[in-house]
Amino acid sequence: MHLLVFGSSDSDGSNLPDRSLAWPVLLKERAATECGTDLELSFCRLYVHAEGWEDRFEQAIASAEPDIIVVCVNGVSWSFRTVPIRLRKWFGRGAGGWAERQQRRMDEHARSHRVAEKVASGVHWIVRHTVPPGTFLSRSVAEARWLKIIDRVAREEAFAVVVGKTDQHGDLLKTWPKVNDEIASHNRVIHRRVNERRLTWFESQSIIDELGRDAAHIGDLIHRREPFHVMMADRLLEVIRPALATRA
């Protein structure tokens, strides 16, 4: 059986000590040990603002011919409102990348020094009020693309799970204090379409709520720690278990 996961840097484990600790890999391992099912795993990063995203999506499906599909809805395209994204749109990819690197370096230093943390917070405030933060896409455009993905997945014969977007924290929340209200509304729209297409909805926010924000996330409050990935694999195994049994 073939498992195809559409995800992001978090579900790819790029911020974990070892990518084998990411939940897609753990899910594959648990399917083998607990259900006796050998899953071939394919992973595809999917950002709906990226050039060629639709071709990448179609190529992944054509190549994998999956029995099970997991689509992780992310909000990088519309809910990440940052200054580097604005600079990227104004001056190009190089300027945005430079700003991201400087911000990351400052934030990493701030996490280990209390005074530096206060300075970094002040710098973020000044920058946000000098250069208006931007997004890659509007919510409506990004949402339409995710709905298109759900409609396309529904045409496959595979068992499909759609994972809802989680809340935002830290600087992303400071930049857009009402973003989590928007995310809740966005999830309702996506959830409704998932139900209409008779796919399976999975709410991963409940795992973060159960673990607690700080226990679930690394320092950037975006990417998740190992306990989150372990629980994600455990919960998703229960969701796909009927498919493993019927398609074995």
The gist of it:
This protein is α/β, with parallel strands linked by helices and 248 residues long.
Task: Pick out its properties.
alpha/beta, 2 domains, five-stranded parallel β-sheet
Report the structural category: alpha/beta
Question: What is the class of the largest domain in the CATH system?
Answer: Alpha Beta
Q: Based on CA inertia axes, which overall geometry fits?
A: globular
Q: Strands of the biggest beta sheet: in what spatial order?
A: 2-1-3-4-5
The CA-CA distance between the termini, in Å, is: 7 Å
What is the averaged pLDDT score?
88
Can you identify the CATH superfamily of the largest domain? Answer: SGNH hydrolase
The CATH architecture of the largest domain would be 3-Layer(aba) Sandwich
The residue fraction in helices comes out at 55-70%
Please give the radius of gyration in angstroms.
19 Å
Number of helices: 11
What ranges have pLDDT less than 50 throughout 5 or more consecutive residues? Answer: 122-127
Q: CATH topology of the largest domain, anyone? A: Rossmann fold
Oligomer: single chain
The total of beta strands comes to 5
